[in-house]
Automatic annotation (TrEMBL), chain C:
This is (2Fe-2S) ferredoxin domain-containing protein. InterPro entries: Thioredoxin-like_sf. It comes from the Bacteria.
Amino acid sequence: MKTKEEILKSFPKNPDYIIEILHALQDNNPYNYLTPEDIKLCAEYLDLPVSYVEGVASFYSMFSLKPRGRYVIRLCDSPPCHLVGSESLLEYLEKKLKIKVGETTPDRLFTLELTSCLGVCAVAPAMMINDEVYGNLTFEKIDKILEEKRGNL
Amino acid sequence: MPERAHILLCAGAACISAGEESFKSALERELKEAGIYDEVKIIETGCFGTCDLGPVMAIYPEGTFYVKLKPQDAKEIVNEHLLKGRIVERLLVKEPEQKQALPTINDLPFFKNQVRIALRNVGFIDPLNIEEYIARDGYSALAKVLTQMSPEDVISEVKKSGLRGRGGAGFPTGLKWELGRKASGTEKYVVCNADEGDPGAFMDRSIMEGDPHSVIEGMLIGGYAIGAKKGFVYIRAEYPLAIKRLTSALEQARNYGLLGDNILGTDFSFDIEIRIGAGAFVCGEETALIASIEGKRGMPRPRPPFPVNSGLWGKPTVINNVETWANIPPIIINGADWFASYGTEKSKGTKVFALAGKINMTGLIEVPMGITLREVVYNIGGGIPNGKKFKAVQIGGPAGGCIPAEYLDTPIDYESITALGAIMGSGGLIVMDEDNCMVDVAKFFLSFTQDESCGKCVPCRVGTKRMLEILDKITKGEGTEEDLVELEQLAYTVRNTSLCGLGKGAPNPVLTTLKYFRDEYLAHIRDKKCPAKVCTALIHYEVIREECRKCSICFRNCPVGAIYKDEDGTYVIDQSKCTKCGICFQVCPFKAIKKE
Amino acid sequence: MKKLTLEDLKKIKEKTQAELEMRSPEGKDKIVVHMGTCGIAAGARETLLAILDEIEKRGLKNVVVTQAGCIGLCEYEPLISVQKVGGPKVLYKYVTPEKARKIIAQHVVNGQVVSEDVLSTE
């Protein structure tokens, strides 16, 4: 893992890199979120007010200001997925993980979120876990994927 | 030793998510086992477009097209096809009606009826190999522009081609470039809008994954034409694979000196940077996109000034979307007249559409403008599955509209689609059949835009919310006819007064469904019925006493214990407990449960 | 890597174009090697490799080589068929690697059917 200073230094000291920097800081955190310290360091590095950086971080849905799980599950909730049953998958995931959308499992392994279209509509319903996209989802397939992720630890 | 076969394996996001990688390793293993690994070449390409058949591959020179591949199929393909030259019939595409297997990629009506310009290389070359792009005339448009054409020549060629912005609004590309060239200032920018957020649209992703160099070359030519030295690609974070492929293509282009200083030995210098979004749909709007590249909250601002005069950091900026950029190199090589020979009078060339929803062949197609919706849905898309009836097609994403069956023969071009109340948009086509409730569809699209509203202007932030509340009421059977009047008024207000395209387009699904499917709204309001049997509050399940064989399957599967046995052993649903989940309806082996 | 010149661009194009030829089989001469179990047992693989090698040596661009299964004439294996654009399909019998090279030189390149090895002509 890189130190926060190393991450910051890999970007030019230019305010328009703020989103890239926030992505990098968030990806570096095992719990996939931006800590108050991250926000402060980023503000100092770019010479911006902390409120400005927090404003940007809170605007974009992919940034989180509270801890998330190691794996962020983003279930696609756009119309093509909706038409083929993403709603029942959401219920299934909620039941299986025993959490609601936006929450994290107590073991801090999974966070459940919804996302806008992942652009793989032909294999709908789909979801993304961190950077990986899974299509043609069924209850059984979800079971298998979650098991795999658990086994990865 | 030359290879005796090229295996083109689709490595688009859809095929990857359907298991392309594990198939590939199985294939490699089998090839090694059979001792012919060095005789064939595996090329991972971009999206073929037949995404619902994935993972897919084509084996050349024959062009045999295999679909729905599983790792366990690899052995048979190697032993039968590659060793013995026998086609593996069971892995071919079957025509939905004839059940006849189609051996080669060119036999498929899906491919036969397409004209691929923007997608010319997608699914045919290795996107990670710049030399394959060069072999297919890649970067020769750039060479031609830099050595034989003045920036004005380039602009007039693009103007003459009639190319219009493929991102949605259809602004003439050549004119935009001309305004950019004439805008005062020495520092100018070109931007590629790759924030493809419309649900159901994935052509830009596919181009970036399958042919990233065509976007780079298009931007280089645009940069030369308007006098920019720098370009940005703004790409959404939901597309990690496209980001990866584009990043590596940029690196290659830089290594080959096709980006950087003094390109191809001329005094033209240009470079491109990628900027990644972070999950905000509104950033596809150009002023919001600019704010986001500048590192701000991605909120739109009123226009004018237009970005072409005051864009990134207040400098003149030409913004085009991915598909538009990918069309530029062929226009330069083959000429404006060639491009303009496709399409209609006002909409030239081709358009890429993403077919999704209730259609046999979902995926990506490129067709000449002016083709009818019927040809797309039936000839290319193979019609509606399970013998159901076509009801409507939502065109243009959440800002578009629903077009009903009576307009199936409308030619697809910017003007005709707009006249029906929809928009061309980025080209998402979501097909709906008789089982879809149009009120529910309108509600769903509106809830999407409502959710993605950035909150800056009142009509969009509050207006869409009020509209959504009314729709919610109607789907619950609590709506009145006055609600319909108010809904319509609100829709017009939001459309006319919102700040940016997101708000202006948000009411379109509601307005078009009100226009074409008013009777469905009225059925929800007057009869408290959902004709398509979708809105849960308006349907109920009942056991048909005469059909019930007392097998108890419904009883055992009901998750809420709403089914009980009456005196003679027949099962009955307690309506006060029923949550209308539909499980009993699905599990009953005797079709003894009715849904009304 | 040094910067590309217009000349380099052309060279890369020509070189890679040849490699991509395989993916557009229309309008080309076709050689089909029959590779059923019988053909393979009779040495069809060696024949195939010789054909590919000869094509590369001669720099032939307008030829595609494919494989097909057994056509029931197992006693004549290895069998290959050659069809020039616009010409008839000629089936050759007992095609050893040496014969294959001769067929390419005489039939594919010069258009003269190697009559002593012909089994049938369609």
